[in-house]
Each structure stands twice: as structure tokens, then as C-alpha cells.
Amino acid sequence: MLVGTSDYEEPGGLDHLPGVHNNLVALEQALTHPETGVFAHDRCMVVNNPDSPQSFMRRLVRATQQAEDVLLVYYAGHGILGGPEADLYLTVRQTDERLADMTSVAFSAVRHAIEDSPAKTKILILDCCFSGRAIGAMSSKSAALAKIAVSGTYILTSTEANRESRAVPGERYTAFTAELLSISTNGIPGRASDVLLGDLYQPLQVAMAKRGFPKPKNLAGDTSGNIVVRRVPRQEPVSPPQHQAEPPAPKPEVPPTDLPLHPLQPASENWLEPPTVTSTDSRPALRPLISDDSLRGLGRGAWTTALWILTSGGALLVIGSIGATASGAYHDAGTAITGMVLTVGLFVLFGFLLLRRYLSRRSIAMRTSQEPAGTEASINEVRRVFFEQVFARLHGIAPGIRAPRVRPANECSFASGPYGHYALTFSRLGFRVEIYLDTGDNDTTKAIFDVLHQRRNAVEDELGFEVTWERLDNNRASRIAAYLTDFNVSTADGPGWSNAVEWATNRVSALHRVLHHELRALCEQAKPAQPAPPDRS
User: Fold this and answer.
1) Could you give the 3-state DSSP secondary structure of residue 81?
2) E strand or H helix at 95, and its extent?
3) Residue 83 carries which DSSP code?
4) Where are the beta strands (DSSP E) in 114-197?
5) Where are the alpha helices (DSSP H) in 48-164?
6) What is the model's pLDDT at position 56?
7) What is the mean pLDDT of residues 471-485?
């Protein structure tokens, strides 16, 4: 059931919302599309501009009682507050803000209609001001968020409880529904599988944040997030292409070999600078004189050999020298000379090992620099430098965090307790700092997440910034994360790079400071009680 109110009768009252009508048309087309849609045309009811609260509720009750498997209720329009408790009301054509309780639809009535539906899964999507209050209303009967009151219900709202939604003048759709339609029509970028209901929240949140719009909210009960909301279109058969001569591939541009070998050693006062890994220089690539493989072969077992030479050579040198001095003769001089030769050989071997180490690192740097600009290998090397600089700064402000061994990759994680690990991740949705909750047991992990989510406002106040609460119902783990969506590690300039390092450092240290001890305590509480010893009296 798709409901929208775009026109209002009260003179001087609520503003008209022309985008709402477009929302209904486009959503119906997306949900009933023959290739990607999930509903049949005859099972999709559209209610445009309901006249009165009674008309709205009659149609809603009819739709909720007819649904057997999946019930989806979408509303777009003005949301207003009314009554002594400032409850949420959904508006209709006759709505008068001054008489909200008599001319609008109380959300409590909508809630009761949805609760009474025989449908196995119930989906509620609200695109209106103060729509976040619906989440509190739907879970108000629960003692804790770990136990959702309305089983099998998924709620998605365009704003938080005390924020207004956005409808930008001149745009075809309201802001929130425009992003929802983008996913319903085009899918999630980089993903070739069906889109599940639980997949909508994160890209919606990132997209709204990029535009500076209010933060969406969601609440999932049971496995409601597993419902498919967009199917992958069937692929048409493609006839094999005719054989044609392919033009020779252009030679990749070869960047200069200036990747820093020791990025944590400051080369200047402003050392938080991104490494340069791209260039338009077209010079031919240089080949190392000694390959890294041959160096590894030459150095195999070298450290063990060096230790043996150091022990034996030093012992012979000492024994020969003492013997020659004590006897006043030189018949032990040969022993002393042998020890000296072996000791000198030790220093030669150490020199070889140092040279090998230098040439090996140089070989790796040259191979990395020969990657075409923008390849995954070259970008991961830049990410490694970024991670190392973050942990170098964390060492000074959060000594309790032990830096891991950093490798060229899109993620760097470190364990910090029985509740999971922390991670810095370059994801499709932006750079992410997260606590990845995974106790090894699904029920325990979700219970810990739900306890923290229940007091999320207090947690975010203590952190000093907002985080996304990702329950990940299809996964054993859950995630508490902060996103930096406007940072590109491969193109960032000096100030942008420095700001991102500072941002990541502050988020990691704050998450660890605020939640580390509480998470450990929750894990301890979740442990099964030990059985009492038998009474031997």
C-alpha cells in the first residue's frame, strides 16, 4: 500500500508537496516492474491524496487484513506533532495543524492496524517529518530493544524523531524517496545479486549524509531484513562477437619510483603527506639488478649461519689470544688468526644481509611503482602508508591500542577483546572506522549490540559524533561504525590526507575509550553461569 498526500485544502496551512505524487508513480513502477519488481500489479494499492483520516484508515485496514505473506506500507507527506505527548500524526488533504488530533491520522492507529495484520512480514516506510518517532512507538511495549515488540516488522524512516524531512523545491521526488528509488531502480553499485530489505539502510544513510540531509533510521525485527525488494534482471543471450583485429593495448604509464620506503620516518616538518604513486612519466621501467626471488634464495638460513660464525669465531679468537699470552709463545697464533678471519667473515655476512634487505625493499617499491596508475596494488600500497600514519599517531594518544602489522590491503584490523575487533576499512560506501562485534555466538553478539543500541543516544553523546548501528541480521556479527564519505586515498592532497588521518585517529581512540570496558563487561555477563558444586554433606 503506497499512500501520499501532496495537496492540502486548508488555506495558509501546510505547503503543497508536488514531489509526493511523483514518488507514488515511480515507486509503483519499481515495485511492480516485470523484471526487477517483487509485487504483482493487482497486489499494489496506491492511495493518492486521501481526503480524511477515516478514508485513510479504511483503506489501510483493508490492505493490512488482505495481506498474507508480505505487507508493505509506505507513506509520504507532512508529518506533524500533536496531543499532550507530542505524538506523530500523518496528514491528509483536510488536515489542519491546529486540530491535528481530529484532522490527521494518529500513528498509534497505523501501528495497531499493522500489528493486527496476519502478514508474516510487515514493512513500514515513512518519508515525513519526525518519522523517527515511529520507531519508538513500534518498540515502546518492549522492555529492551533486544526483544522487538512487533515480530517480523521492519521500519525505515527518512528522519530521526525530532528532525524534519526534506523536499527540495524543483526536484522531481522528495529527497529520501529519490535515493530509495535509485536503489529500487538501479540496484546497489558493484553488486550483482538481489537487493534485500536490510541492504537499503546503509547506502541510504551515506547518500543522505553526502547531501547534508537528515539521517534515516531503521529498526528490524526477526529476519524481516531478508525480504527481497529488488530482483536481478534476467540476462539476455548475447551472440558471440565477430573476430576483429584488436588494436594493440597502450603501454601503461610508468610512475617514478618515489614510493617512500619508510613512510613513518618524517622527511620534513609536515610529514603527514600522501605518497606519490601516479605520474605521467613515460620512461621505460627499470629492472632491478638482483631479483627479489634470488635474494630470498641467497639469504635462506643466513641468520642461522651468522649466529654460528659469531659463536665459533669469537670463541677461537679468545682461546687463541689467551693461549698465546699465557705461554709466551706463538704456537696458538694460528688459532687466533682463524678466529679473526671468521669474525671478519661475520661482518661481511652482516653487510650482505643489510644489502639484501635494502635491495629487496627497493625491488618491492620498484614493482609497485610500475603498476599502472589506479590499479588495486598501487592503491593498496598507499592505503598501507595511510594505516601506518594513523597507528603512529594513535601510539601517542591511545597507548592502550597495540598497532597491528600493517599490510597493503583495503582493511587493517586489530583485536581488542572477546567481543570482536576494531578495523579501518576502505569500503564502497567510504572510509570506515568500526567496531566489528563477533563473540563467536550469534545470539550473544546480537544481544550485546541491542543493549548498546538501546542507549545509542547516550553513547553518541559520549563519543562526540554519530555512528551507524548495523545489526547485520544476515550475519553472525554486528557493526558500530563511523564513515568518512568524501575522502579518496589515491587522490587526496596534503591537507585532505592530514585531515583524514586526524579523523581516523580520533574515531578509533574515542570508540576504544567509550566502549572497550563496557563491551568486555557485557561479554562477561553473557557467559553461561557455572554449575554449583555438588553438596557433599
Assistant:
1) strand
2) none
3) T
4) 121-127, 153-157, 195-196
5) 53-66, 100-103, 107-115, 133-138
6) 96
7) 93
Pairing of strands 70-76, 121-127: parallel
Q: DSSP 3-state assignment of 521?
A: helix
Q: Could you give the angle at which helices 18-31 and 175-186 cross, rounded to 10 degrees?
A: 20
Nearest CA to 383 out of 423, 345, 410 is that of 410
* Burial class, 215, CB count within 10 angstroms (exposed 0-12 / middle 13-18 / buried 19+): middle
Asked if 37 contacts 31 with a C-beta cutoff of 8 angstroms, the reply is yes
Interatomic CA distance for residues 471 and 443, integer angstroms: 12
- What is the Cα Rg of the chain in Å? 33
Confidence of residue 284 (pLDDT cuts 50, 70, 90): very low
CB neighbour class for 329 (10 Å; exposed up to 12, middle 13-18, buried from 19) = exposed
The residue whose grid cell reads 553513547 is 459
CA-CA distance, 390 to 501, in Å (whole number)? 6
Outline where DSSP puts E strands in 179-335. 195-196, 217-220, 228-230
What is the CA 306 to chain-centroid distance, rounded?
A: 47
Give the cell for residue 387.
594505516
* 78 backbone dihedrals φ, ψ, rounded to 5°: -80, 135
**Rounded CA separation 244/266 (Å):** 53
Residues 6 or more apart whose Cβ sits within 8 Å of residue 47 = 1, 2, 3, 4, 56, 59
Nearest CA among 381, 383, 359 for reference residue 369:
381
What is the C-alpha to C-alpha distance for residues 350 and 306, in angstroms, rounded to an integer?
8
Q: What is the DSSP string of 469-511?
A: EE--TTSS-EEEEEEETT--TTT--HHHHHHHHHHHHHHHHHH
Percent of the chain with pLDDT over 90: 37
Q: Is the pLDDT of residue 11 over 90?
A: no
Q: What is the pLDDT of residues 497-531, one digit of tens each?
A: 889 999 999 999 999 999 999 998 898 887 765 55
For the chain, the residue count is 537
Burial of residue 464 (CB within 10 Å: 0-12, 13-18, 19+) is exposed
